[in-house]
Amino acid sequence: MLKPTSSLLTSWSKTLHLPKSAFPPRAPLPSPYLKRCTDDLYVWQQASRPRENTFVLHDGPPYANGSLHIGHALNKILKDIICRYQVSQGKRVSYIPGWDCHGLPIEIKALQALKLHHDDVSAVDIRKAARELAMTTIEEQKAGFREWGVMGDWDNAYQTMEKGFEMRQLNVFKGMVEKGLVERRRKPVYWSPSSGTALAEAELEYDEAHRSLAAFIRYPIHTASERLRAKGVVGGDDNIGLLIWTTTPWTLPANEAIAVNEELEYVVVEMQQLQLPQVGDLLREQKVLDHQEPSGPQMNEAGDSVGRKTKALVARSRVDYLRSIFGEDKISILAGGITGKADDGQEYHSTLSGTIFGSDIVGTTYWNILQCGHLEDQANSKTREYLSPVIAADFVSSAAGSGLVHLAPGHGMDDYNVCSKLGLPVTAPVDDQGRFTSDVGVSILHGLPVLKEGTTAVLNWLWTRDMPHPGAEPNSAYVLAAHEITHKYPIDWRTKEPIIIRATEQWFADVADLQPRALEAIGSVKFIPDTGRPRLESFVKGRSQWCISRQRAWGVPIPALYRVESESHEAVMNGSTIDHIMKVIEQRGIDAWWTDAEDEPAWIPQGLEGKYVRGKDTMDVWFDSGTSWTLLEDRGLDEPVADVYLEGSDQHRGWFQSSLLTNVATQKASNSAHAPFKTLITHGFTLDQSGRKMSKSLGNVISPSQITDGSLLPPIKRKKQKGQPKYLEPSFDALGADMLRLWVASSDYTTDIVIGTPVLQSVHQSLHKFRVTFKWLLGALSKHDPNQDLTTLQGNSPYTYIDSLALQQLSAASTSVHVHYSAYEFHKGIAVLNKYVNSDLSAFYFETLKDRLYTGSVVERVTAERVLFHIFEELLSMLGPITPLLVQEVWDFTPENVKNEMEDPLRKIWTPFVPSDGLKTNEELANDTPSIAGFSQAEILAKILQSVKSAQEAIRETGGMGSSLECDVHIQPDQEHGEESLRFLVAMEPSLPNFFVVSKVHLYFDTDREVANKKLDASKKEGAKEATITIGNRAACRVLVSRPSGCKCERCWRYLDLKENGLCERCDGVVNEEFPQFLAGVETA
Predict the structure, then answer these.
(1) What residues form DSSP beta bridges with 486?
(2) Which one of 250, 316, 642, 946 has the fewest beta carbons within 10 angstroms of its own beta carbon?
(3) How far apart are CA 552 and CA 619, in angstroms?
(4) Which UniProt keywords apply (predicted)?
């Protein structure tokens, strides 16, 4: 018999097969693997994959005007994950990054860098500065994108300021001109006084708490319509008026009509002007009034201000609201008659009869108060010039104001649409800077900014006027009330200043003609999320005209020529003139449009008579980026040129819409319409952990670099390395691009995405878990031979039940992740992956495996390693699109013996793992023995395992055990329900100790209950815990966890029957077979 010496006892650890790997605990920064898993991979797949199997993700170009932020990371990494997944599916991916280089944001920033104002710099100098800024920014952003592991054709990235792009854009524009889709009109557009240019709707943001001065204005009736007179409202005096409410008093000088709803009911009310402290003080606060007292309300003997009484038509449904503004006792509905004075001075009395509808008021004329201010001599006025009509409009509602709407067709879209049909003038006496022009007529208004002093000055002029029109009686009231409101108001998306609506001469694309085909094209598009479809459809349906001209220098010129001799500077632009201009641009470059002399004849086509100059307008930047699909025309225009477009939700009214419209505009009418994209994916915006938008003023901005360099989070606590001084411990973990990428992949991008320390800590833990998992797997597989024939080791199926279960779990996880990735649901795939790694691997299979791997026989180790090989290979595939740097690094550390039997995980075609090697399927395993109440064997085992763990924890709390190996498990099936259903446990009895991670498992089958109970009672020791397992409300088995019956093996630490050398039977056999040298120091008893 052999006896161990003391030196032998300390050497058992050398007989263990512990995992060893040089894989580092932290990712190296900067990553030495970046080029190989990005640029090299992109070039390889372009060359190796068939062109006919190409997947195109077309890049929506970011603006080349600033530093990268977390929104850029979300967008670009999502695109890269999609591209990498498609590569893993055997596709040849085409991803050409791009930049939007023109437009106001870049122009403004370039001027700020030069510390110059737009008016002080020539167009040529502006273009030069803007181009240089864009080029510098592109290089900076490109470097950042590439550091995030985004692969693409970076050497051929497109820029909207490149000559080739601009020529393709002009060609699309020419096609639209030739189809009659582009025309010049004077109509209202969004205008930014702070930027001095027209804006598209997509260039607007909204201030939800904008403060405006609103007013109730009374316009005196001049002549009532016949139907109105028939109902007793005579008009022609100063006693009856039309009450309107406006939030833009500065537009009153441009009033051309008042609108009513023909179906609404109206009444005549007698109302009293708000008292002076209520109106006058407010106007003074708003700097409306000068220091002079207005001649409006008069003081009574007590010194109280008395508002004028007057009469007006209002909607009946608005009376209660008006009373809430003016006071309950200040407004009364007149139901009997009206006493007044006619134009000839004779008093009259008229009787009100019948219900007054809006249709009765249509045709009435009124004194246009501010236009009367044009008169220098009111006695000699031409009355007709200062009268305006009441008209009908469907958009007038009873939801706000008085039920009558002031119309200024030069300052409102709806106003323009209804007034232009009636031939009413389009007046807009406001200049590019948002100031009143001399056309406003009232001299004191000239030069005032309409959004500031102009608003208050208009009310001041009305407030202090007694007789603003011929024949008016003294003490007439026109401003009946003024009050401040807080409401939603559009602002310039770059300057953040309020905009106005202003009629100017602009170029428009006729979207109304494109609507039917654009909507048809949307029908065949897949939207992710589904809410994107109605959103895009609503924007297309709600847009009839697209203002495509801008009054800025940095952009692609609208190739129009203007005839100098004509008073209106007639514009000439058709297919032939654009062709000619494009040829000149091809020869001279696009800057020549601005640098050449104004009368340079080279730009004028032969045969065009007269003197012409080039226009100064440039195209809307959404037209620039919207034509970027021309980059992909080699795919053919008879089908979508891109498989995927992916951008933020704001692009439904921006790039998505402009791309759709310009693409549809170029298609043949005889063909069915299609969009330039097959799938349209929308992501939300990034918010801080409190759900707020990130801004510098709030101090809640998180930059991508804070995540990649690890400075945002504290380091993960790790085991201290022996001999390592404290000062060498890292102050933070350098996390690298994979951390940023994993955060993106873990987020549900279809909604707004929260990012903050708690979220990132969870992602950090996941990334760390992946890393340590790979490190353990690399160590466990360091000596594995994937080619070894397992059947030569142990029968036809050497796998244990636990192995089969582990591989089935791997297959289920792999299939689920694959399905989610293919549906662009990356966050769901990562959730499955996290659960699999933490629960199925770390908490279950790896724990059950350690005894076999470290102390088991060759057969036990090799079969376990084969399972780990499949897990290792599949984990690399599942993480390849998400964390390519980690996968590339792991691949570099993969042992050659393993690597030789695998494909490069970033280049292989990945299909979900399907167990083979003679493994039983889930169905076969389930059919071996009956299940209980529909529960599978795996589910039954999980319930027993959970019971065992709970019992162990209870014993541990009392100090009865430490390691889980310090116990035995006893299982007695219920004779009625469990004896047959749990019989599969007998077949797997040898592997049950590893399954439960205990020293020994005792099964009590085929014994009568009394004998079994005695055995269990005999096994009970102090501190043992017992439980009954129920499955589907049926008792399945009795489980007992007790102190072990054996002694601790010095090698595997399990409590079993030992040999005299201190080893269990298995360890003794392994040492004798594999490590006979360790027995050299053994003495014979």
Answers:
(1) 211
(2) 946
(3) 9
(4) Aminoacyl-tRNA synthetase, ATP-binding, Ligase, Nucleotide-binding, Protein biosynthesis
The DSSP letter of residue 787 is T
Token pair, residue 204, equals 């607007």
Q: What is the pLDDT of residue 384?
A: 47
The 8-class DSSP code of residue 989 comes to G
**pLDDT tens track for 640-698:** 889 999 999 999 999 999 999 999 999 988 889 999 999 999 999 999 888 888 877 67
Map tokens 């959970």 to a residue: 946
Lookup result for tokens 């951008």: 647
CA pair distance 949, 821, nearest whole angstrom = 35
In the numeric block, which tokens belong to residue 537?
Answer: 């459809």
Please give the structure tokens belonging to residue 451: 């959004």
Q: What is the pLDDT of residues 1043-1067, one digit of tens each?
A: 888 899 988 989 988 887 788 988 9
- 240-246 and 309-315 beta bridge pairing: parallel
Spatial separation of the C-alpha atoms in residues 126 and 118, rounded to whole Å: 8
As a whole number of angstroms, the distance between CA 954 and CA 997 comes to 16
Domains of the chain: 205-492 (3.90.740.10), 717-920 (1.10.730.20), 930-1045 (3.30.2320.20)
Token pair listed for 769: 């878990």
Point out the residues of the chain with pLDDT beneath 70: 1-10, 234-239, 275-307, 335-351, 353, 372-385, 465-477, 566-568, 634-638, 697, 715-733, 786-798, 917-934, 977, 1079-1085
Size of the chain, expressed as the number of residues it contains? 1085
Helices (H), 543-590: 575-588
Work out the angle at residue 887's Cα, subtended by the Cα atoms of residues 886 and 893, and round it to the nearest 5 degrees. Answer: 90
pLDDT of residue 494: 81
Q: Which residues are within 8 A (CB) of 1080 and not within 5 positions of it... i.e. 6 or more apart?
A: none
Spatial CA neighbour of 935 closest among 948, 944, 926, 923? 926
Residue 436 DSSP SS3: strand
- pLDDT for residue 539: 93
CB 742 within 8 A of CB 771: no
pLDDT at 299: 36
Helix (H), strand (E) at residue 1009: helix 1009-1019
Three-state SS letters, 825-854: CHHHHHHHHHHHHHHHHHHHHHHHHHHHHH
pLDDT at position 509: 93
What is the helix (H) or strand (E) element at residue 339, kind and residue range?
A: strand 337-341
Give me 573's structure tokens.
């632009």
